[in-house]
Amino acid sequence: MKLPRRSVLKALGAFASLPVGRMLSQSIAHAQGMPPLKFIGVYHPHGVSAECYTRRANETDTQFDLNFADSALTPFDTPALYGGRSFKNRIITFEGVDLAVAELSGASGHGAAVTLFTGSMTVGGDHNAQGASLDQHLARTLGLGVNTPFPTLNLGVGSLGDANQDAIAHGPGGSVIRNQLDPVVVFDQVFANLTGNTDVTAAEAARRRGQSVIDFVRGDLNSLSGRLATREKLKLEQHLSALRDIETRLTAVRPTTTCTQPARPLKTGNADPALDFPRIYKYNGGEPYFDRIADLQIDLLAQAMLCDSTRFATLFLDDIGKVFTVDGTQLPADVHNEVAHTYSGSGSSSVALGRLNRYYYGKIARLMQRLDEGGLLDSTVIVAGSDMGNPSAHSMRDIPLMIAGGANGALTMGRRLKATGTALNSHAKVLVSVAKLFGDQSNTFGVSTDPAHITGGFPGL
Q1: Residue 336: is it exposed, middle or buried by C-beta count within 10 angstroms (0-12/13-18/19+)?
Q2: SS3 403
Q3: Contacts of 15 (CB under 8 A, 6+ apart)
Q4: CB of 77 within 8 A of CB of 88?
Q5: What does DSSP say about strands 91-95 and 415-418: parallel, antiparallel, or unpaired?
Q6: Quick check: is 456 in a domain?
Q7: pLDDT digits over 111-170, tens only?
Q8: Residue range 64-71: mean pLDDT, rounded
Q9: Is 455 domain-assigned?
Q10: 345 CB contacts (<8 Å, ≥6 apart)?
Q11: What confidence score (pLDDT) does residue 111 get?
Q12: Which range scores top for mean pLDDT: 208-222, 250-264, 313-327?
């Protein structure tokens, strides 16, 4: 019998907000065959072609088509391109959601990238964030990633992220965390010392020895109990009783995923020259290799998750910069100025931007495919978005935003949600909802002079 993560958190009650409570929640998920929840934040530039993204007339939250004419979302329902997999029922898209905290700061355009995963207003002409990004908050502040070799991995394609318009990962107080751009460096850091396959048989045998998760941390619980008043002690024992009852009903067998060392990337000298990437930096000769580097970074990230080297990550996908083809159609040489800045909301400009959006969504679909191949997509929460809506206006309104994956059953996927109202359509509410999936009991996330923008989860999510 498997129990949804929300049932576990309900049983934990307020106890779930304590560090040992979060440990128990994750351990129970392990014990009943659910891998621990993982988070990946993905950024893509240039906003969105609304005409190629939004729901069609007469479509509903749950009844919709992703393959309409010029759709940007076709990668999520094109099984032939992704190992026979459709991801239509593995995504939640949002419409009418704004980067309200960025707009409140007076930020516009690319300066709002820092807001996407921090939910933070910006300060100064450099648009500095004031708080940590969600990956850092979950992994380090809540401590959910500290028992893995890499509490977080922050990867990128094209830009280091040392300028705020290219920064999506931030530490406490908004300190910028650079993107790692070089797949060879990522391999050497994460996989160079990995030998052989993960012995899932031994792990399963250890699980079956019957040692109670609660008994394993009994010392911590006894220490906590000694500091509680009588009423709180009673509540704690009630929670422990509920947890022990849950444990007795856990009979599922843990999935047997295999961790293997991937091949080390080669910058040059590949049998197929199309796989070479002698340069990696945007505006320094790296643009022609963007596609190859993006695929390598995605594959390495998925494998790192599969090997449990990390559970929290960000992926920055920059402007592709040079001539590319999408679905057999060539894009202009300068997509920033010739596609994003010429978008008018209709006609050929909508089709061109939708095609560019489709390219980036194809990369997200590739990430989903790789995770699904390893059996981890259902236990991963991917949040993907951009730093603007209408790119020609550098608007903070109606940004493209989605959740992909499965969240161990804690979210109903396969939906297209439209925000209602105006003032409270802040994207930070989605971040609040995601943080709650990981056991964060706070009802806020981000930094804003208007608490309404960063308080409470997204309605209906």
Answers
A1: middle
A2: strand
A3: 21, 235, 236, 239
A4: yes
A5: parallel
A6: no
A7: 789 999 999 998 877 778 899 999 999 999 999 999 999 999 999 998 888 776 678 999
A8: 96
A9: no
A10: 50, 51, 390
A11: 78
A12: 313-327
Is the model's pLDDT at 446 over the cut of 50? yes
Q: Which residues form the domain of 225?
A: 1-34+203-256
Hey, what amino acid is at 170? Answer: H
Helices (H), 108-197: 134-136, 183-190
Residue 244, token pair as written in the block: 């022990």
51 and 23 assigned to the same domain = no
* In the block, residue with structure tokens 């959601």: 97
**Strand, coil or helix: 102:** helix
Q: Say if CB 114 and CB 415 are below 8 A apart.
A: no
In CATH, what number is assigned to the domain containing residue 52? 3.40.720
- For residues 274 and 343, membership in a common domain is answered with yes
Task: Tell if the pTM clears 0.90, that is, is over it.
Answer: no
CB atoms within 10 A of CB 363: 21
Are 27 and 63 in a shared domain?
no
Residue whose token pair is 């998925």 = 302
Residue identified by tokens 């990946």 is 40
Residue with tokens 């304590």: 18
- Enumerate residues 6+ apart whose C-beta is below 8 A from 19: 142, 143
Element (H, E) at 460: none
Q: What's the CA gap between 108 and 120, in Å, rounded?
A: 14
DSSP for 254-291, please give it. Answer: PP-----PPPPP-SS--SSGGG--S--BTTTT-GGGHH
| Cα dihedral: 186, 190, 194, 199 (round 10) | -120
Q: Which helix (H) or strand (E) holds 51?
A: none
Token output for 89: 């029922």
Q: Is 288 exposed, middle or buried (0-12, 13-18, 19+ CB in 10 A)?
A: middle
Residues 350 and 391 in one domain: yes
Report the C-alpha gap between 27 and 200 in whole angstroms.
16
Query: Are 17 and 116 contained in the same domain?
Result: no
